Amino acid sequence: MKSLRGVRGFVVGLLSGCMLMLTMPTMAATVKKFVLGEATYPIEVNGSTYESDQLPVMNYKGSTYVPLRAVGDLLGATVGWDNAQKRVIITYGGGGPIQNNAFRNVQVTGSAGKYTVTGEGRVFEAVMSYAVEDGHNYLLEKNYMLSEGAPAWSAFKLNISIPANKLPQNGTLMLQLFEYSAKDGSKVNILNIPLETFGG
């Protein structure tokens, strides 16, 4: 009787071990690990050196890795996170018009939660939409009625106000201009525009 229990325990243990062995490669296949070392050389752009104890410059197989926002600051670019589309948005080249097929000549003025956005829109039935997000959540979403619908271009002026307690402490406040598709109601002609970057 004892030997039967022993055999049964051995079989259960063997089966458990086999199942564990089969699942381990699957789990390992979904996790990628990279070993980076801290770079011992400085990073200098246009005479400015990047230094940070919390987010240091790293090296991986001879390639240098610097935090994206730090690169943006050094180059005078704006780096933001578009939570709706799950992607990083980098705007560079200061002063040029921001535009796509539905919105053009977009300009932003203001700071500290008070912004004026002007430009021209060309959207179906003259209804454009806009939203402001902090990298994680929408802080507002509204519609705006243009004077004419597509194919005509119509001027718009948005006065945007975000309460101080909703402004991000560290990150970029992003404006999203878009229109809803007449076919399926999805967002189309999305144009992401940085309003202001907060923190370091």
Question: Can you give a write-up of this model?
Answer:
The chain is α+β, with helices and mostly antiparallel strands and 200 residues long. It has three domains: 1-33; 34-66, no CATH class; 78-198, Immunoglobulins (Immunoglobulin-like, Sandwich). Helix content is 18%, strand content 43%. It contains two helices and 14 strands, in the order αβββββαβββββββββ. Strands 11-10-13-14 form a four-stranded antiparallel sheet, with no helix packed on it. A three-stranded antiparallel sheet has the order 1-4-5, with no helix packed on it. A hairpin with a 4-residue loop joins strand 10 (127-133) and strand 11. The longest helix has 29 residues, at 2-30. The protein is elongated, with a radius of gyration of 26 Å. Mean pLDDT is 77; it is low at 1-24. InterPro entries: Cu_amine_oxidase-like_N, Gmad2_Ig-like_dom, Mao_N_sf. Keywords: Signal. Residues 45-94 form the Copper amine oxidase-like N-terminal domain. This is Copper amine oxidase-like protein. Residues 1-28 form the signal peptide.
